[in-house]
Amino acid sequence: MPLFEAVRMALRTIRTQKLKSGFSLIGVLIGVTFLIAVVSVVQGMNEYMRERFANGLIGVNSFEVRRFPAIDNGNVTDDTWRLWLRRPRVNYEESAFLAAQVKTPTIFARVCFDDNTPATQGKLRGKIQLYAADEAYARIKNYTIAEGRAFTAQEVQAGLPVIVIGDLVREKFFPNLDPVGRVLEIAGLPYRVVGVIARQGTLFGLSLDRFALVPFTSPARRELCAANVVHELWAKTDSPEAMQAAVAESEQYMRIARRLKPGEEDNFYIQTAEGALGTWQKISRILFLALPMLVGISLVVGGIVIMNIMLMAVSERTREIGIRKALGARRRDILAQFVVESATLASTGALLGIGTGLVLAFVVKAVTPLPAAVATWSIGLAVVLGVAVGVTAGVYPAYRAARLDPIIALRAE
Q: N or C of the chain: less Cβ packing under 10 Å?
């Protein structure tokens, strides 16, 4: 029997036996839906973490020197955490030493910060994320100045009370006003607004625009970190190759600055975008390891259901099989008919599952902060799995149908 004819007969059977076919499709449909939805969300998360999270928070060709990881690379034991807390903080002398000794062209910026610094403008009050930083910080983070300007090296050197605010801070404290030149009180100290940073958007639904920058040497720094302490020393180079060289040099000179002996463990941490991705990569690997098992259970259940439905079909159509054999159909024709019918059933379930999975993934994207991106390989894999389940489940019923004696089959009611 030609393949096209076998598929046409299978589709006709599905149309005429909708309820039975629906039950036989449901296992494959659930398995494929789960496969497509989970892979789409994980793929979306991978792209989001790489493009938005790591590069957005850490920055392209950027790294930071700090006491311990801001984003840890996995489970951290209590002993490790206590060891990290005993590490010395980065100080002014070490940051100046690195800036002077690193030969790879690199710009550095000292940073201290607090997530909830009180701010006031007239009667408006609120809390903002405040960063005291050197003038290079805005360039390292690739901030675009939407209004006004960034503060200068001279203003940092003089410790002037000037401030550059994020877009959400502008909306809250200066609605419908030009904020440049106005005063924003930070922890009770008046700061003149010199610039507004263009909108950054959100990260997992959280705004990235509720922040402000003041010069590292301005009075507000005392509210953020202790004397001679740097929370983070940020650095940026022109290229990924230069960044690797600058990271290696920074590690070498930090060890020199801290008089660490050969073989002695670093008591500082250099965070790069690749390091920040480590945690998510571990999670995604676990998801991808668990996914085959979860999908496999659904597909096995679906395959068993299809096989039983096909065995029932063989029993119900025994007389039809006898007539076909009497008219000259060979065993392989009967075998092919039922295998193709089973494969068509499972493939239909897989196609419906692909559609349902894509809809589910985009619903998740629309109503939650989680991103989603379609992985084309998952669609191809779903089709292959659907056909494979159908063929596997249909072999035994087809074999029983092909071995029927035509005389006995013709006598069947």
A: C
Kindly give, in sequence order, each residue whose CB lies less than 8 Å from that of residue 292, ignoring residues fewer than 6 positions away. none
pLDDT, position 312:
82
How would residue 5 be classed by pLDDT, with cut points 50, 70 and 90? Answer: confident
Q: Once rounded to an integer, what is the mean pLDDT over residues 86-101?
A: 93
For residue 165, which of 203, 217, 204, 126 has the smallest C-alpha distance? 126
Q: Please check the confidence at residue 48 and state whether its pLDDT lies above 80.
A: no
Give me the DSSP letters along 69-93: -SS-SS---HHHHHHHHTSPPEEHH
Q: Are 187 and 219 in contact (CB under 8 A)?
A: no
CA dist 249 to 13, 270, 348, Å? 71, 11, 59
Please list, in sequence order, all residues whose beta carbon lies within 8 angstroms of the beta carbon of residue 240, skipping any fewer than 6 positions away: 61
SS (H, E, C) 160-205: CCEEEECHHHHHHHCCCCCCCCCEEEECCEEEEEEEEECCCCEECC
Q: Considering only residues 230 and 123, tell me which one the structure prediction assigns the higher pLDDT.
A: 230
When pLDDT is averaged across residues 296-323 and rounded to a whole number, the result is 82
Which residues does 309 contact at the CB level (< 8 Å), separation at least 6?
Answer: 20, 21, 23, 24, 345
Neighbours of 358 (CB within 10 A): 18
pLDDT at 57 (0 to 100): 64
- The four Cα atoms 333, 339, 340, 344 give a dihedral, to 10 degrees, of 160
List, in sequence order, every residue forming a beta bridge with 126; answer none if it has no partner.
119
Judged by phi (left if over 0) then psi (alpha if -120 to 50, else beta), residue 187 lies in left
Number of residues assigned to the chain: 413
pLDDT higher for 271 or 106?
106
CA 342 – CA 87 distance, rounded (Å): 64
pLDDT band of 309, cuts 50, 70, 90: confident
Higher pLDDT, 135 or 292: 135
- Tokens describing residue 369: 């902060």
Tell me how far apart the alpha carbons of residues 111 and 54 are, in angstroms, rounded to a whole number: 18
Which residue in this structure is represented by tokens 């639904």?
Answer: 205
Query: Around 299, how many Cα atoms within 13 Å sit in the side-chain half-sphere?
Result: 27
